[in-house]
Every structure is written in structure tokens, then in C-alpha cells.
């Protein structure tokens, strides 16, 4: 059974404010208040291997992070919830 982890920050390749830049890392805070951070590739592997399930909490709404693919390139995104932009992309920069 996969462990659930809340994603509370991201890093992007290039400008954090550009919607066209790919996510390079996701991160969050463990139950013991230590920080965790994974590369996008590792997070994709963890989801596909069912080691972790990731989610974001934005404005009190929870949305699962999934692996998507565009022209053979895998990337992370949240399940469409009718809000734009993608909840994952709206998170602050990880330290």
C-alpha cells in the first residue's frame, strides 16, 4: 500500500513563474517537521511503483498528483478539478 505525502512546494527548471517550465523537484514536510524533496523522475517512479501517492492542498481543496505523458515525456500534474492553473504549479518554491 502506498504512503500518502502532501506536496507543499516545487522547483522548476528555469523561471518559477513561467507556466511553460517543467517541474524539477517536489517537496513537503514530514510528520516530524523535517523537509523532504524528490526529483520529478523519482516521484514518477514512486507513483508508478505504488511506493507513494502524492497530493496537494490548495485553498482547502485536496487534489491527487498523477503521472501524465505528452509526446512520450512523463511529467507530474494534478487531477483536473476545474481550476486553473494546475494546483501543482501554483505551489511556492522549495528551499
TrEMBL record:
It comes from the Bacteria. InterPro entries: DUF3892. This is DUF3892 domain-containing protein.
